[in-house]
Request: fold
Amino acid sequence: MSSFNKNILIVCEGTGTEPKYFQKLNDRLIEKGIEVQITIKPRPPELEVGNQYEKRTGSKRRALILSEEEKKENSLVEDEYKAQPVAYVREAQLGLIDATFDETWAIYDKDGHPKHKEAFELAYKDIDGKYVNIGISCIAFEFWILLHFEASNIAFERAMCRTVNDGKKDYHFCGNKTHVSDCDGDNCVCGRIVAEGYLNYLKGKKDFSFEDYHINVNQAIIRAIELKKTYSQNKSPIYDLNPITTVYRLVYKLLHLDKIDFIWFEFSEDQNIGNFRISFERNIEILIIRIEILQIKTEIINTDLICLFDIDANLNEFIPRHVFGRGENDQIHMIEFDLSSIDEFKPVFVGYKKSFNSYCITEL
Reply:
């Protein structure tokens, strides 16, 4: 059984697909006996026997009936933070401010939300050394599902096409060729998933079976990372990119909590580790590590301080043990490592040890 004992909050924009997805991952942690408490908001549909629904006014869709306690919790976000997606980040942030949670995530889509810049700025605000993690998908969460089947770079316009009929939303399910306005997956990601024969809608809803695509999760993570790399020369903020998804970061973390607790940082960000400042660069297959000694004294870097990780969270201690001297000329050290030199190990992430069984990592 894992020795982790953490409280993690996941705040989702969607009320169905995203909460259900992360509950499935949480169920697997429970099956493994991982000592971690995960709270998902909104509450995943049908998580508990007895969940009740009510018909939304003017809509054919049903809404989960919230308890009075849940309604009170949902109202805690202050008026100045009510705009989307700021509201999701703020709700996650409040979980850090009151110290209820050790780690929080806001999971939402690009959609037509107006205040993405403000949401990211709020997420980066330091709360006792912690920050809100963001998992954003553009254009929709379903793009993450699509990556389980193909390495797509299609800039979809929406999650699913819909037709306006006499002022009411007339939903049709793209990909089945049953509606005159079916885009056949040219404009919407759900249509692409169905039109290509990857998955089918469940019970006539915009929903897909977790069990039918999760088997390909490692491929989806690799594809999401490779897609992110294609924007390496693009200086636009991530919320202005399409397509893109960073949901894989939380997914990778939850998949491997039985081994290591992963914490994320950006490859371009310098990292302070005790008396070291470490930065990373990559030149094709050469990983360049710059280590600066912040105080002039003898320091030791053990083999497990900086490591590589593969898609299955296997660890590779690729740097020999180093002893750095006291001289001023020895304060900055450069290490170059050929990633292709590792036989039968395909590194995906590089990271440094934060504490026992906890590593901060970033994509290579």
